[in-house]
Design brief:
The chain has 181 residues and is mainly alpha-helical. The chain is built from eight helices and three strands; from the N terminus they run H-H-H-H-H-E-H-E-E-H-H. It starts with a helix and ends in a 6-residue tail after the last helix.
């Protein structure tokens, strides 16, 4: 087996946004009306479209303010408690009863009271959620990915391989099929 193919590539979630941006730009610059409409609805005037335009758009779709925000969070440069965007929330999740916490310390305390649940970030807050919530985000959780004392604490995995893998899956689900550009 080729070891190179099995090696972990850090920040693959960040690379995914870049790839989607390039695909979208190519489509727009080939005068695809649907893609041009996406740009114009988001305040980007007529082409030629630039890489920064695509990065901004896909970053916003993924739940970040802009490319700089996405890059900061997805590269592992943020600190727990900084604005982590809305990647880990969608309107589909409004139907679930979750525990909202104002900060990470409160979330960790609540998490101890609710075994089998997960801590996910939302902007500067945290949410204690269950499997149904994660399924609505397109994520199948595996508790074996966590240390026993941190079981289900996805926010506590920030900046690790696990975080990047789950974030990558979330971005793929949130942004859907790239063929639609």
């Amino acid at each position: 087996m080729d070891n190179f193919a099995c090696q972990y590539q850090p920040h693959k979630s960040l690379a995914e946004l870049k790839i989607r941006s390039k695909i979208m730009l190519k489509s727009a610059n080939q005068n695809n009306p649907g893609t041009i409409e996406l740009f114009s609805r988001n305040g980007v005037a007529a082409g030629p479209y630039k890489h920064k335009d695509g990065l901004k758009l896909v970053s916003q779709w993924a739940g970040f303010k802009n490319w700089q925000h996405a890059s900061h969070v997805l590269s592992g440069s943020s600190q727990i408690g900084e604005d982590m965007g809305t990647l880990w929330y969608t309107r589909r999740c409004q139907v679930f009863l979750n525990i909202w916490c104002r900060d990470y310390d409160e979330a960790k305390k609540q998490h101890l009271l609710h075994p089998g649940k997960y801590i996910v970030p939302f902007k500067t807050q945290f949410i204690i959620v269950d499997d149904d919530y994660m399924k609505a985000l397109g994520i199948k959780m595996d508790m074996s990915d966590f240390d026993t004392n941190e079981e289900g604490n996805l926010a506590g995995q920030y900046g690790t391989k696990n975080w990047d893998n789950y974030t990558f899956s979330r971005i793929q689900f949130a942004l859907g099929n790239t063929v639609s550009f």
